[in-house]
Design a protein that fits this description.
globular
Length: 222
């Protein structure tokens, strides 16, 4: 157990480095090589998802990206649901990164722990960014007013965002209260590695919810 704990920072550093390279490659392919996408918001979603899915996001990006000049293909339910969760997860990922960093910098604590304000602020940022991402998807497709587009985004992504955060938050509570009782902080690679795992779990908890949302037509078939 001691050897595993000793190796964990190195493993975390490798995992984060791989994820950053994957995200950087997608950005390079879109921005430098000029392979722009049909939906501009997906140019943000794909590299952000690579921050926790690493090379898998590169593989899915290469298979399922829709170039700006191409028509949108019909997607199977598993693919459509995976894309829907990716979209939701990108907002959650950015929100959790911003929220966790902010709580650490400000030094917020509740009951002697940064965990509780971190979860609350993470959720606020994740929910806000997730709804913005969904609005940027719905508004162009449905050609709605800002108000109608915002209402549609709330209907489409509220349950999805909550489901994603349930998986992530359950893992982070376990990490902070059981696995690392001495505490983990955003200055440590292990913290972000644990966050990566939590986001992957959030993807799994959000998948069945998104399947239902897409199947029922509440959420756009991406």
């Amino acid at each position: 157990m001691g050897s595993v704990a000793h190796m964990l920072p190195l493993l975390a550093t490798i995992a984060i480095a791989i994820a950053l390279v994957a995200a950087g490659w997608i950005i390079w392919d879109i921005r430098i090589r000029g392979n722009r996408l049909k939906m501009p918001v997906m140019e943000v979603v794909w590299p952000v998802t690579a921050l926790y899915r690493g090379p898998l996001s590169v593989y899915w990006y290469r298979r399922w990206r829709v170039p700006a000049d191409a028509s949108v293909p019909e997607r199977s339910m598993p693919v459509a649901t995976t894309l829907a969760v990716s979209h939701c997860g990108a907002g959650c990922t950015l929100g959790d990164i911003v929220g966790s960093t902010l709580v650490f910098v400000v030094g917020l604590q509740l009951l002697g722990l940064a965990l509780w304000p971190e979860l609350a602020i993470d959720f606020v940022f994740a929910f806000t960014l997730g709804i913005i991402f969904q609005y940027l998807t719905i508004a162009p497709i449905r050609n709605r007013s800002r108000r109608d587009g915002l209402v549609a985004a709330l209907k489409a992504d509220t349950l999805s965002l909550i489901a994603f955060e349930v998986g992530l938050f359950a893992w982070m509570i376990l990490v902070q209260l059981a696995l690392f009782r001495e505490g983990l902080h955003p200055t440590e690679m292990t913290f972000w590695f644990m966050m990566q795992i939590g986001m992957a779990l959030g993807f799994l908890t959000a998948f069945p919810v998104n399947w239902w949302l897409v199947r029922s037509g509440v959420k756009e078939r991406m």
